[in-house]
Amino acid sequence: MFWQKEIETLSRDKLSALQLERLGRTLARVYERVPFYRKAMDGNGFRPEDLRGLKDITALPFTTREDLRAGYPDGLLAVERTEAVRLHTSSGTTGKPKAIFFSRRDLDQAAELLARCLVMTGTGPGDVLQNMMTYGLFTGALMMHYAAEKVGILVIPSGPGNTERQLDLMRDFGTTVLHITPSYLLYLADYLARAGLDPARDLKLKRAYVGAEPYSEETRRKIESLYGIDIYNSYGLSEMNGPGVAFECAGKQGMHLWEDNFLMEVVDPETGRPRAEGEAGELILTTLNREAMPIIRYRTRDITSVISEPCACGRTHRRITRIAGRADDMFIVRGVNIFPQQVERVLMAVSGVAQNYQIILDSYDQMTVRVEIQREVFDGHVEHLIRLKNLIIDRLRSEIVVRPEVELVEPGSLPTFEGKGKRVIDRRTM
Ligand code: DLL
Predict the structure, then answer these.
(1) What is the 213 CA–ligand 1 centroid distance (Å)?
(2) Mean local confidence (pLDDT), 115-137
């Protein structure tokens, strides 16, 4: 099923031509209206009319999150403030948030993109979507909310938290689709198990859209089998509308990135130089269809690669692979670069492991992984526990090279998260 079949299946040639045309318009627009971009282009001796092909974009500097912060509150606006109708912010760990403005047209466009995602994965009128992302300055819930209404889906704007009430809503209104972070979905699975509920028997769930933070394929598989539903990976960031930038189709082999709206590049995160096709690197995005706040060559810090092979679903927009991690999330132990997802991937594939874990960094030589295990295992034989612990240590060592300390802890004993999780506790002084 398609929402906008013509554009979703546009030939590659036409898609590239459309990108070039939109890129030209975007560059002209920001050159004229945003001093920051005019300066950047002048500094590189580039004028919008110099644009000949999509590759020419590499002549322009990147936009970083620091640039957005420096422009706070409205330095990068390309319309009058009165033409903006919505503000979202995205806060990092430090400093001022990034403020992103949307015009009426931008919001319509963002909803169109997410409507494509909903319909692509089989959701439509008759479905009931429980929107368990946070409503507010975060883009997650509101963007999905309006897109689902546009498609004609009944939306329950529950937001996150109050898990007992969430369950009541699911039961009373026959929720078929969840929109949720992986952290909260893992917690919910644990909660259901403790409440003695079997989702397949007691709920009407068919699928969940899961994103806003990295998670591994192993976690997806684990949750799919716990719930008996389909999990679709959803990628996006506030700077580029929020959710709906890239989304999995039914094939679940990578996420289609809507190339009529975003131009993607993949670069070496250290040098900023382009990666060869299919190689992993940092995703760089340029908005091609935004009015209020176009952003050129944005450094997402997210590590992925492009899948250029045609997809069985017929969509021509190329796919990106599951985000391996944020360049910023990577940590180093004994000189080895490690992403939290590597640890997660190992843990979630071990039987007996429950849903929650934590990584503690006390020194540059040692990491400790605390992992909740299932109740039956926790209360079982001590030899079994020792075997399980050794198995986890071995598997982690072969994945991340470093041999970690592993602590098996009681289910329900580690902090839980209703939004994005924080699983790495770095106690080292810099
Ligand atoms: O998290 C937008 C969103 C909401 C996406 C709901 C999907 C679903 P921010 O708060 O600005 O926006 O955070 C964006 O989250 O740069 C990635 O590092 C990470 N991220 C988002 N989706 C995924 C995903 C929203 N599916 C940042 N896999 C991004 C891995 C993800 N990381």
Answers:
(1) 5
(2) 97
Cα(283) to ligand 1 centroid in Å equals 13
**CATH architecture assignment, domain 331-429:** 2-Layer Sandwich (3.30)
Overall pTM surpassing 0.90 (yes/no): yes
- Ligand 1: which of 180, 237, 341 to mutate, most ligand atoms within 8 Å of CB? 237
What SS3 state is found at 156? strand
pLDDT at 215 over 80: yes
Could you state, in order of their start, the residue ranges of all structural domains in the chain?
1-328, 331-429
What is the Cα–Cα distance from 170 to 178, expressed in whole angstroms? 9
Ligand 1 atom having least distance to the Cα of 140: 4
Distance 210 CA to ligand 1 centre (A): 10
Cβ-proximal residues to 145 (8 Å cutoff; 6+ apart), any chain: 131, 135, 155, 157
Assess contact for 177 and 128: CB atoms under 8 A: yes
CB-based contacts of 313: which residues, under 8 Å, 6+ apart? 120, 249, 250, 251
Yes or no: domain 1-328 corresponds to CATH 3.40.50.12780:
yes
